[in-house]
């Protein structure tokens, strides 16, 4: 059934009613009532997290482990010179399985055999078990053997 707009002629030009009990709401507060609402709080963040890719940690074969061990021995012999190295190592992801490989360059402050880690002068700590590759950059031929 279609209504005739002439039924509203008596109220169409009347002023808007103003409450005597309640103060008028500010325009900003009224606008917030019509703002978008996220019914699934955190849903978008979870989708982004799911889309983020991680890498599985690569297992080193015996020859790769031997190369890393030889370079660690070289670092220990020359630790007083604070040799400069480039290390590629694995960092486990805190939120999902896998992680990522990071490559850093810096001077070695300490090779901690007890804690099984390398400490750089900038206080970066690398666990020896996470090292994928290590290159000694110091100019001395003794390091590059």
**Mean residue pLDDT:** 87
Radius of gyration: 33 Å
Instruction: Profile the largest sheet.
Output: 5 strands, antiparallel
Instruction: Summarize the helix and strand pattern as letters.
Output: HHHEEEEE
Strand order of the largest sheet: 4-3-2-1-5
User: Regions with pLDDT < 50 over 5+ consecutive residues?
Assistant: 141-145
Query: What is the general shape?
Result: rod-shaped
Supply the number of helical segments. Answer: 3
Question: Your description of this structure?
Answer:
- This protein is rod-shaped.
- The protein contains three helices and five strands; from the N terminus they run H-H-H-E-E-E-E-E.
- Strand 3 and strand 4 form a beta hairpin.
- The chain has helices spanning 27-32, 43-51, 62-77; strands at residues 84-92, 99-112, 117-120, 125-127, 131-136.
- 21% of the residues lie in helices and 25% in strands.
- It is of the alpha+beta class and 145 residues long.
- Mean pLDDT is 87; it is low at 141-145.
- It starts with 26 loop residues before the first helix and ends in a 9-residue tail after the last strand.
- A five-stranded antiparallel sheet has the order 4-3-2-1-5, covered by helices on one side.
How is this structure best summarized?
This protein is an alpha+beta fold and 145 residues long. The chain has helices spanning 27-32, 43-51, 62-77, and strands at residues 84-92, 99-112, 117-120, 125-127, 131-136.
